[in-house]
Write a structure and sequence with these properties.
Blueprint lengths: L3 E5 L4 E6 L5 H11 L4 E4 L4 E4 L7 H13 L12 E6 L8 H7 L4 H9 L3 E6 L6 E4 L14 E4 L3 E5 L2 E4 L4 E3 L3 E5 L19 E6 L3
Parallel strand pairs: 5-13
Antiparallel strand pairs: 1-2, 2-4, 3-4, 5-12, 6-7, 6-13, 7-10, 8-11, 9-10, 9-12
């Protein structure tokens, strides 16, 4: 049976840490589907559950959540449909590709083959709107964050650090080495569904011919 550790995140949210990290996505979905909370946001280890502090005192929210969790049973989690994304790795969009390839003893083409051949899954969204942390990257690929972050990274840029990719939803500063840029728009506040990706979603990357 799942076990959970709960603690407050300020006066309007409770963090729920499951004993099994894999429960984060089905737990967040079930909480969201219940319609009883303002928002639920899965993180690396916990799910943040936001409530209305004008309607519930923090201790009341904690008790309500504990009651809800006592009957939670993790069923088969069905993430959103797999999504195909297209990666432009031309020189203008991949300033760190050659450096990362050299560091890994690979050609840029081989490094990209290992990236696109990985079983990629959106782990969580955060940092900035639309920014996606993507797990499942080939574990043989090694990279560290830049010693000096860039002041401007374009929306759609794809960064790589050991163990994961980062998809930039907005243009802004960033410290991930960049290996390409997606042709799709990850975040558009004018769309009916502003976020293109969701937690737990399988991502299939395809290289754009240039």
């Amino acid at each position: 049976m799942p076990a959970f550790h709960l603690f407050f995140l300020g006066d309007d949210a409770v963090a729920v840490q499951p004993n099994d990290r894999a429960l984060r996505h089905p737990l967040a979905k079930a909480l969201r589907d219940s319609g009883e909370w303002i928002d639920t946001v899965p993180g690396k280890e916990v799910v943040a559950v936001h409530f209305d502090p004008l309607a519930l005192r923090p201790t009341e929210a904690m008790g309500k959540l504990e009651d809800w969790l006592s009957s939670f049973r993790a069923g088969a989690f069905e993430p959103g449909r797999p999504i195909d994304l297209h990666l432009d790795c031309s020189a203008d969009h991949a300033p760190d590709l050659q450096t990362l390839a050299d560091q890994n003893g690979l050609t840029p083409h081989t490094l990209l083959e290992r990236v696109t051949g990985s079983e990629l899954v959106v782990d969580m969204l955060g940092f900035t709107p639309g920014f996606a942390y993507v797990e499942g990257l080939d574990p043989t690929l090694k990279a560290e964050r830049l010693a000096v972050p860039r002041q401007k990274v374009m929306a759609g840029a794809v960064g790589l650090v050991s163990g994961q990719l980062g998809f930039y939803g907005l243009t802004g500063p960033g410290g991930w080495p960049i290996i390409g840029r997606l042709t799709e728009t990850l975040f558009d506040p004018e769309r009916a569904a502003p976020f293109l990706l969701e937690e737990g979603q399988v991502v299939r990357l395809h290289l754009v011919d240039v």
